[in-house]
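User: Sequence in, structure out. Go.
Assistant: Echoing your sequence, followed by the structure tokens.
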Amino acid sequence: MPEVLRVAVADDEPVMQMYLEETVSMLGHEVVAVAKNGVELVALCMQTLPDLIVTDIRMPQCDGYEAIRRIGQEQTLPVVFVSGFDEASRVDSATTYCVANYLTKPVDEEQLNAGIQTVLARFERFRLLLAESIDHVDALARLKGVQRALEHLWRHQGLMEADAFHYLQKTATANSLSLSGAADHILADGAAI
């Protein structure tokens, strides 16, 4: 991913649209599309080909989840979902089409930046998994397993996400496994470090 990302933002509330656009710009990225609903988001993403999408979920005509599903049929992108409602289960389902992170409104600049950095790290893992997969759908499925293993290492070993991923890579190398194979190994064995 380039340092300056080309970002599409979407929200049905004009104030939130403006806030996301300004905040993403203040973080040093270029906003290439601003949409007020999912239909616009899909059309604008097909025209502008962004590196990242920041979108609300509940929007008229076509919600953010459905928009990302449609976009995901053409390309796999990192997505930060932002919602005022508990949408975690829907976002988890969206990871069939994209690499996602989820933030609950209100979101300040620091939270948005952290959310973007988290989804970019996951997207880099997706790209590594794509090299060991048959296709995007398989790589996204493998990414879910890797994320579960990283969460396990965080909960049970106290490792931060970057350290947990480094441990996963070392486990893969030491055991001649793929990243997803190392994730399965960690989850099956309880990951004693």
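User: And one key feature?
Assistant: The beta strands are 6-10, 30-35, 52-56, 78-83, 99-104.
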